[in-house]
Amino acid sequence: MKLIVTENIYRFLNSVKPKGNEIERCGLLLGKKEEDYFVDEVYEVRNVKSSTSEFELDAAEALKIFEHAESVSKEVVGVWHTHPFWKAYPSAKDVSGMKIFPGVWVIVSREEIRAFVLEGEIREVEIVIA
After folding, report:
1. Boundaries of each JAB1/MPN/MOV34 metalloenzyme domain copy (predicted)?
2. Residues spanned by the domain of 81
3. How many independent structural domains does the chain possess?
4. What is the CATH number of the domain that holds 113?
5. Of 20, 127, 120, nearest to 78 (Cα)?
6. Backbone angles phi, psi at 21, to 5 degrees
7. Could you tell me which of 124, 121, 117 has the C-alpha nearest to residue 98?
8. pLDDT, tens digit, for every residue of 65-95?
9. Catalytic residues
10. CA–CA separation, 86 vs 60, rounded Å?
11. Strand locations in 61-112 (E)
12. How far apart are CA 67 and CA 89, in angstroms?
């Protein structure tokens, strides 16, 4: 299983790498899920927690993105968020979120961008730029 993203999507994810004392940023990934995850749209969604250590997507903004995905025959295949002070690995809160919203979870730290799925256990997913 891989996460296949466009160059523009990868550039966007690289651009949101935390640079200082900032709140977690978050959003949704659109595309399709087959054997691999294909992502060709990315959206930033307001973090209603305004926290440096956790996030919660603004429900109204997220709903609009889900509606858009449906209107263009795409799926919301994952979530992305930043870890301003932690490594790019799912926290306990992330794992709880992965149980509620399955799919690929992209975590962007100061140093790296990594993707994970929860399939019984946390599994890293290779990111491929296509």
Report:
1. 1-130
2. 2-129
3. 1
4. 3.40.140.10
5. 127
6. -80, 90
7. 117
8. 999 999 999 999 999 999 999 999 999 999 9
9. 24
10. 28
11. 75-83, 104-109
12. 29
